[in-house]
Amino acid sequence: MSEKRELVLILDFGSQYTQLIARRIREQRVYCEIHPCTVPFEKVRELNPKALILSGGPSSVYDEGAPQVDSRVFELGIPVLGICYGLYLIAQAFGGKVERANAREYGAARVVVERPEGIFHRFSKRETLDVWMSHGDRIVSLPPGFATIGVSGNTPFCAVGNTESKVYGVQFHPEVVHTPRGSDILASFLFDVTGLHPTWTPGSWTDEAIEIVRTKVGPDEHAVCGLSGGVDSSVAAVLCHKAIGDRLTCIFVDNGVLREGEVEQVVATFRENFHLNLIAVDEKKRFLDALRGVTDPEQKRKIIGKVFIDVFEEQAAKVKGARYLVQGTLYPDVIESVSFKGPSAVIKSHHNVGGLPERMNLQLIEPLRELFKDEVRAAGEALGMPRDLLYRQPFPGPGLAIRCLGEVTEERLAVLRAADTIVTSEIHKAGLHEEIWQSFCVLLPVRSVGVMGDGRTYEETCAVRAVRSVDGMTADWAPLPYDLLGRISNRIINEVRGINRVVYDISSKPPATIEWE
Ligand SMILES: Nc1ncnc2c1ncn2[C@@H]1O[C@H](COP(=O)(O)OP(=O)(O)OP(=O)(O)O)[C@@H](O)[C@H]1O
Ligand SMILES: O=c1[nH]c(=O)c2[nH+]cn([C@@H]3O[C@H](COP(=O)(O)O)[C@@H](O)[C@H]3O)c2[nH]1
Ligand SMILES: NC(=O)CC[C@H](N)C(=O)O
Ligand SMILES: [Mg+2]
């Protein structure tokens, strides 16, 4: 696959924005990959990139042990763009000097175009650009062969370049939305400087991906796929089905903590509309038995993950000739594990079926591992999948169990399910389903006194949660209209026995998380 398409390589030095650089480049319909800055030079050569981008990063290039770049990448003769830390690396590598600046700069700044060439090809001389800065270092002397192409109030070396060798660097961040013309700068780098072609799309990618799966799975071999009905596993399943047809068996587990009507919906969609080989297993009792009496969030998650694996293993063993496991791993999942950034703290143990392969001797097939979520949706569209499936809100593997705080019982799940259905339908009716990243209910083991029909009630509390997010990593609570909130609250209290109070969660992530457990 990598031979045909033109690749831009992004080396990650730990910037918060590295994934954004990739997003912006792919938006220009150019394929790119992020690799950690520690990637061996041989690998870089093998990837055969047409251009190189060096990301920002938290270190200072003059620090001891600061991440470096193998200087042989500069001898590949391909255009290079350094962003912030990347700029300083370039300056240092070519004989310039970088020091701590007197004043750190975070936030909005202005750059004046000195020379409208190279990455500033699409601007005119003296044009002023709004840009976003986030740095504490600066260049004090420019390497030979480099010239200033943009200046800011703070430094004459805000954007620099060596036109002959096509090596450029900027102190600001063209990849963030707060640099409104950032895309023009990246476009100049990709098209004017490097001469790439804007031909890559997630749609054009699907044909190649199908071909790869087809080649990988031999004519007598089979693959299994854990299908949740969520976006990622659904697109992965449909894609693999196109590649190997009936040799794909999907396993859908009813774990007892799914939403109202979910089982019927998933089975109908995939069996009837997509004609997928689908085994739906009813393991409600097994999961709920294992969860009985458990209230600790991490314990709940671990139990569910474990039972999932057991069930999956049993089912996969029944599929004759199964040698492969299809997973809907996305690019951010891949990047999390290879990024230059050090290990991060475990906030919660996310369930996925990643523990399976080792134990089952199945080889992994991860057809979506190069894509971002919105690209997965576009690929799904190219595969002819319906919009209402592709634009579903994410739903966690441990399901309602982590939204039913306290003990998970059938009774409490029924209450939660009913309340959740109301939120979902009201959000749909208000036309907000796609705009909101996730909207759902959480059942709290907190009882309070109410009065209904002149009688006293003493029932549990429902928290409504609705957040806006781009990737689930950070999120803002959504300012839903008061009348919508009012309707939701009224309906839940009137229609759902067991809840007599509704509260709205107005916490963002961080410091809260999206799910309550
Ligand atoms: N009920 C289930 N039955 C079978 N497999 C499941 C089930 N729930 C989760 N999985 C597996 O766990 C993986 C991780 O779940 P996750 O929620 O991250 O992805 P998804 O459901 O495919 O997509 P989305 O993020 O849109 O919900 C799924 O891709 C699927 O393979
Ligand atoms: O497949 C999943 N298995 C899990 O165990 C899990 N826990 C959280 N989520 C989803 O991940 C996103 C971030 O959630 P948090 O802010 O609660 O960590 C949100 O979209 C959550 O719904 C999960 N998805
Ligand atoms: N955003 C960045 O790449 C910052 C680089 C370096 N840590 C500085 O403070 O200047
Ligand atoms: Mg899901």
UniProtKB/TrEMBL annotation:
Q: In which pathway does it act?
A: Purine metabolism; GMP biosynthesis; GMP from XMP (L-Gln route): step 1/1
The highest taxon in the source lineage is Bacteria
Listed A to Z, the keywords are: ATP-binding, Glutamine amidotransferase, GMP biosynthesis, Ligase, Nucleotide-binding, Purine biosynthesis
Q: According to its UniProt record, which residues of this chain constitute the active site?
A: 84 (nucleophile), 173, 175
Query: Enzyme class, one word?
Result: ligase
Q: How does it assemble?
A: Homodimer.
Protein name as it appears in the record: GMP synthase [glutamine-hydrolyzing]
> Species name for this entry?
Pendulispora brunnea
- Taxonomy-wise, where does this protein's organism fall, top ranks first? Bacteria, Pseudomonadati, Myxococcota, Myxococcia, Myxococcales
Per the record, the gene is guaA
